[in-house]
Design a protein that fits this description.
Strands 1, 2, 3, 8, 9, 10, 11 and 12 form an eight-stranded antiparallel sheet that branches. The protein is globular. It has 271 residues and is of the alpha+beta class. It has one domain. It has helices at 44-47, 49-53, 60-66, 74-87, 112-125, 138-147, 165-168, 177-185, 187-190, 197-204, 240-248, and strands spanning 4-10, 13-24, 29-30, 36-38, 152-153, 159-160, 162-164, 208-213, 217-222, 227-232, 255-259, 265-270.
Amino acid sequence: MDAIRVVVRRGAVVEAVHHVHAATTWGESHGDPALEFLLRSSVKPLQAIPFVEGYEELDEDEIAIACASHHAEPAQLAAVRKVLARAGATVDDLENGTQEGRPDGRLGHNCSGKHAGMLAACRAHGWRLHPYRDPAHPLQLRIAAIVGEPAAVDGCGLPTFASNLAAAAALLTQTPPRIRTAMQARPELVGASRGAPDTDLMRAREGWIAKGGAEGLFCAAHDDGRGFALKAEDGSYRAIGPALGALLGIDAFREVPVTNSLGETVGSISA
């Protein structure tokens, strides 16, 4: 089948068209299942495994924020601080940088929860704290044993991994139960309180976990073993919500409004 076509309209005029490729573990595909890309933030639930392995007891907010690409909302920043406290670390220990327009320096980076979880994993396993993002560090070697050899460096400075769409469809089916449960219990920490497709899917459909990634990537898995991946060919993440609605038959996701600076609806993004 052809890739899912997501159309951006302002008034009656088509301003852009995005093509979203999809692969599933149940045999449905759209576009090219062999499409190659980097897993980016969609792999965070698997990168959190050493953190969870290090502690018999963790609160759900700690696990969820370690899987998050957060929006620096107050509850999210509080969860990052909680994980840092468990690690006996401070914001200065985070090896991610800063992001323009985000509060609180390194703490406000959307990957700070993942980095805090990595510091806590190092503390639990007796590994040196720094430089934990080095591919030769014991933490990164453990992650490589789970995911595979890294292929590049992610936006937050950590190793990232190459995949294709068919393989990525099964990616999050490997997520351990403790991590799945925490993501489902605290979806607002994984993405945002509103407007994040991964959070929205976990709220809308019971049994799913989901994680978005940079350059228009989205991976999800169900408790029953199903999984899928979406990849916008042009890297546009705004196409993911409508494509997700088309793939899973969720009418509420199929179209999102285009608004202007006054908050007026002036168009749509639809699959």
